Amino acid sequence: MSDVRDGQYLFISRVSQEVPVALAGVDVAFVGGSVDERGHASIAALEKVSGTVYRLRFDAANQQAFIDDRPVLRDAFSKIINGKGRIILDATTLGLGEILQVLLVAKRVSSAVIEFLYAEPARYTRREGVVDDRMRDFSLTQNCHFQSVQGFAHEYDPSMRASHVFLLGFEPGRIRNAIEQRGDFDPDRYRFQMVIGVPAFQVGWESNTIRPHLAVLEDLDITERSIVYCQANSIRESYLTLWALYRQLGDERGCFFVSPLGTKPHAVGAALFLLETKGNEIPTSLYYDHPERVIKRTTEVSAWHHVVVQLSS
């Protein structure tokens, strides 16, 4: 267990091989749709310990949140959270859009603490027909249109300066789609920074990220100077890495774009970073594809992560 304060937030992290016993006594849990074994296990664990479990879905195309398949407005969402002692998000099944919706409401009602549960995968599913373990070709998501989330969006003007941080996963097609949909940009004014999950979930998995992305990194003229490494299973390290890059690259005359295309802990760290920098003089913006996860994309649970984030003192 680690207990560390970083800037505005206090992170308390626990890692275990079994479902964390500290989950007992949760007041409200938010879960998403399950597509694999660990998703089923994570939802089942929260249904055992939580007073109330809500299924949350975010429709990125219409910027609409749904709770138990019913559309919910911000005021009604606030009433669900307001006054609750322990609120937990199942980061295993919730997408980034859903996580941002809860964080926005939590900030609105001044919730002091948010908890996250994440079941780390033991194995990822390779594409059908791939029999060589050296082939790093995975079937994880169906990519969608890149856009932002209301409240975390900043329009891109090709004449302005921009820094764009991509937190990379196993699928190089996602970053290619992002750049194609961004359109023309001036490389003298638009800078890229790549974040790779090292240490990875398991020894050797970093190659699943690095090797498939070599061609796109070469196309973008990305050198080692524009690559940083961040522990793949750490929400806190993702948050700190983005803050370090923001201090280095942020520009009041431009925008700092974030695309968390890698691990879910990296995405949660990005969500917390975007929440904290919302409204800053140096603007930040989410640029994300809200992908549809493939059924049976992983198998089994390698480890359980329970992270408590104190949003305010």
Q: Quick summary of this structure?
A:
Helix content is 28%, strand content 30%. The protein is α/β, with parallel strands linked by helices and 313 residues long.
Give the overall silhouette.
globular
Largest sheet: 9 strands, mixed
Strand tally is 16
| Class derived from helix and strand content | alpha/beta
For the record, the CATH class of the largest domain is: Alpha Beta
Low-confidence stretches: 1-5, 129-136
Overview of the structural elements:
This protein is an alpha/beta fold and 313 residues long. It folds into two domains: 2-124 and 297-310, no CATH class; 141-293, Rossmann fold (3-Layer(aba) Sandwich), CATH 3.40.50. 28% of the residues lie in helices and 30% in strands. The chain has seven helices and 16 strands. Strands 1-2-16-8-7-3-4-5-6 form a nine-stranded mixed sheet, sandwiched between helices. A five-stranded parallel sheet has the order 12-11-10-13-14, with helices on both faces. The protein has a two-stranded antiparallel ribbon with strand order 9-15. Helix 4 (172-182) links the parallel strand 10 and strand 11 (190-197). The longest helix has 15 residues, at 235-249. The chain is globular, with a radius of gyration of 19 Å. The model is unreliable at 1-5 and 129-136 (pLDDT under 50).
